[in-house]
Amino acid sequence: MTWLSIIIAGIVTYFARMTMVALISGDMLGDKIKAVLAYVPSAVFPAIIFPGVFINDYGTFIEMNDPKIFGALVAIIVGYFSRNVIATILSGLFSYWMIIFIFNF
Amino acid sequence: MLSKKQFLTKGMLDVATHMLSVIPFGIICGAIGIELGFNPYLVYGLSIIIFGGASQIVFLQLLSGGASALIAITSVGVINSRHLLYGAVLSEYLEKLSFIKKLLISYLIVDQGFAESNKFFKKNKTEENLHYHLIGTGGTLWVCWQIATITGIILGSFVPDEIGLKFAIPLTFIAIVVQDLKKMDHVIVMFAAGVSSLIFFNAPFKSYIIIAPIIALIVAALLLRFKK
Fold first, then answer.
1. pTM value?
2. From the list A14, A21, A88, which residue is nearest B91 (CB)?
């Protein structure tokens, strides 16, 4: 039963991936739609980032002094100037761990 | 004019840095499944059949919490519906492929691969065989995801969840969009998406993940109209 659910969930996911690629051809999308679609990364990824930073494992809002906010800010600044993915992720993680370490010893 | 192999390699390199967050997340994903008491084969089956990080965790958590299969499947569908947007963006670059190739390459479209390949496609619009870049990003992510979830399944409860490796996920997405902070219109769209995702966080089936982008795209459309 669980396997059947996984397979159905997999098919649903695959259809989400495949439908637009397989069915849309270039002339079907007008210039206006294409201009809006250029914003897709900016429209989708913050919807993953914000909850990942501001909401904790229990589904409630974090405190304003949570180390994740500091870590995210450091990552944004480092990422903005370095243009480097590894530097962005590591600076965020280390500054986050540093705050946890300082306030926990 | 680059060769197919060069596109493939470029794709693999472009996405390589994201492994810093993808691999820990994959390990966590495998470990959570085992901790929740699921059969290891079943936990691994998700990585091949669904191949979508967050949705795999939600699926297992819902089932272990006693939710019905219908609710678990609906949640996976809603969480992964954002791929419809990725597909719409990528369709422009993949339209010359045969129908079969489109069906095959679609399986490999995931967040980080879409982000990196889309950036590459925008800069190299006129090149042929661009899709090899997407095979490079998606293929690399697929292989690493499989290895990471298997590792998590083997380590099981030995994986500590207190060190906050989960925080690497928002960080990897910050790395993807941070350069667009230079453009005011993108800043507004990002802010609209982020704030909406928090407002709708408790909407059923984790639907904030698609509601927020739709609101943000409506904001983008209004901005475009305003610009003219």
1. 0.94
2. A21
